[in-house]
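Supplementary notes for students who missed Thursday's class. We covered one full example, reproduced here. Read the sequence, then the structure, then the short commentary at the end.
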Amino acid sequence: MLGLSPSDRAPGLLLGEGVELADDVQVGAYVVIHAGTRIGAGVLIQDGAILGKPVALGARSTARGGGGEPLAIGERAKICAGAVVLAGATIGAGAVVGDQAHVRERARIGEQSVVGRGSAVDNDVSIGARVRIQTGCYVTAHSIVEDDVFIAPGVQTTNDNTMGRHDRDCRLRGAVLRRACRIGGGVLLLPGVEIGEEAFVAAGSLVTKDVPPRATVMGRPAKVIREVPDEDLLERWA
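Structure (token representation):
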């Protein structure tokens, strides 16, 4: 069982060596916590979560593996039922990883951010504070999501224009979502696009090029239709 041992702290709980588990952490049934994982005070771990899972890559994968760092979960974070968080990830204080969500190695989830039910955050993704990623989203590897971004259900990002037909040293380019931008439901972002600060991408859009700050875009491909008005900026609603 990969060095896992049963624990009487919760029904069906399995712990690896060197796990740091604060006394007030709430642990549901049939949770697995792999070796070295660090879990801060006041964390909630719901049924069936798997924490610190070792990286498993395919024979032809170009990802660089786990890097040996343990999973770290900040104070008061919530890891919901069936979520899987890999070794090497960092979950910030007060963040929420939703039911059946998946967070890969070297991903960074900022304080008070939410990863919605069934969403996936790929390796080497940086997510800022107070970000809201809703149900069924995919944040591809090497993406950057700054503070206060809103990502609606079903948003998909991409990072490889060749769809796998490239040299192993090819640099993949994820999306860059600047502070407080909003991405509507079902949007598709092509590799390397940057969505500017406070920009608004309408639902169902296909974004093929960078979006300027405060621009509202829509369509397939997305085009600028107007500027986000002052009364719609984050400061008005903070």
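Commentary. The domain at 137-164+171-238 is CATH 2.160.10.10 (UDP N-Acetylglucosamine Acyltransferase; domain 1). The chain is about 0% helix and 30% strand. If anything here is unclear, bring it to office hours.
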